[in-house]
TrEMBL record:
InterPro entries reported for this sequence: Spore_GerAB, YkvI-like
Protein's recorded name: Membrane protein YkvI
PANTHER family: CONSERVED MEMBRANE PROTEIN, MEMBRANE PROTEIN
UniProt entry keywords in alphabetical sequence: Membrane, Transmembrane, Transmembrane helix
One Pfam short name: Spore_permease
Signal peptide: none
Amino acid sequence: MKSGLKWMFLILGTTIGAGYASGREIWEFFGFESGLAICIFTVTFIISVYVIMKISHESKTKHFFPVLEKLVGKKLAHVYDVLIVLYLFSTTIVMIAGGGATLEAFLIPYWVGIAFFAVLLILLFIGNTNGIIRLNTIIIPLLVLGLFYALFSFNISNSHTWLFDISKQYNWPAAFTFTSLNILPLIAVLSAVGKEIKDIKEAKIASIGSGLVLGSISFIYNETLIQIADLLAEYEIPLFAILRGEPFAVFIFMSVMLWLAIYTTAVSGVFGLASRFQVIIKLPYWILALVLVALMIPFTRFGFSNLVAILYPLYGLINLYLLITILMYPFIDRLKK
């Protein structure tokens, strides 16, 4: 149970990044008529995570290429290998930029915030990967509890009921693009710890636990955003529209949690990249992290909302084939055996 929860927090830390925690990613994919879509997402996410962890555990992987080979074959694995590297690199650039921009709210200059964020990012890789896992076990429970509090508080004060008409759920296909978007970084991160998964039961606990938590938050978050749909054009970060009536202390707490969500996503991105390149370049994790972050910093002027609006749906569509192979893998594997 303890090990399963450890992996569950790693999964949540990878998925609940700035796009998700801010609400921008959820609104981009879901919105009106999406209750069924979120239910389908929950089921497909649980199955997908379990399959990835099972392959990683059985193959004792240290990076994501062996998992891709199992799923899509050697030729397509090279295509997705490049795609994952590009995805992790581009999203981590935006997370670093978001980290600097968030600190501007506390009167810290943008480039000072970038430098501070980058140093913290590199320092975490000095030592072993346990530091990354411990980070998620501390931050993610606080972030999840904070989100639940903010969302429940808003809905209770507005007397909103969470019911949906099954006959009017026309946005159900969004479940698959949303799942495929979030599966790509998870392949990178979970493959890197495949050798550390001791028992398949850990995968069951982690996949079911993370799927139910994400499904619950996504549904409540989406229902909350629907109520303030007319205000969302005024806010780059929808979460701030939800918090506008909350006490100042709650606003500060959630702003800090949002910054930490950006940090955990950036950590997961650098971890996935470093684990892949370490096979080619035999250097310690912290040196690879230093090189990667140094390459990313010049590109930190790319906008956060532009990435979510353009790249996220694009990655979601590109990864649909990968999602299908993951969902079909248990059946194909059984037929082979």
